Amino acid sequence: MMWQDLVFLAGSTLSIVFLAPTIRNATARVPLGSSVPSMTIGAIYAVTYATMGMTFSAAGSIGVAVMWSLIASYRAPGEETGLRNIAYFYAGQLRRGKRLASDAVDSNDARIDYEQSAD
Asked: What is the 3-state secondary structure (H, E, C) of the chain?
């Protein structure tokens, strides 16, 4: 075991402790734009730590990802609850990305013709 594994576990444990009041507070509202990316990063870190053999860090990151998924599911500002909030967020991001790409292609700024300058 590497000492860094314990340091990352301690950091994850603190994150879980600090996130717990948000889950307990029924009136708390956390935007999906904060909770879903944090949940995703926690899951990615867990996989990364696991592939590096850092078992304790991976377990701590899974705990953080679970806490953020609970916040995204039950403390989002909308009326929906559960995993639909997470799916709703990703679907909205996909729509925004498509719209952005479509606007960039249709934009006149993307089709500026440049003349060669005189030497």
From this structure: CCHHHHHHHHHHHHHHHHHHHHHHCCCCCCCHHHHHHHHHHHHHHHHHHHHCCCHHHHHHHHHHHHHHHHHHHHCCCCCCCCCHHHHHHHHHHHHHHHHHHHHHHHCHHHHCCCCCCCC
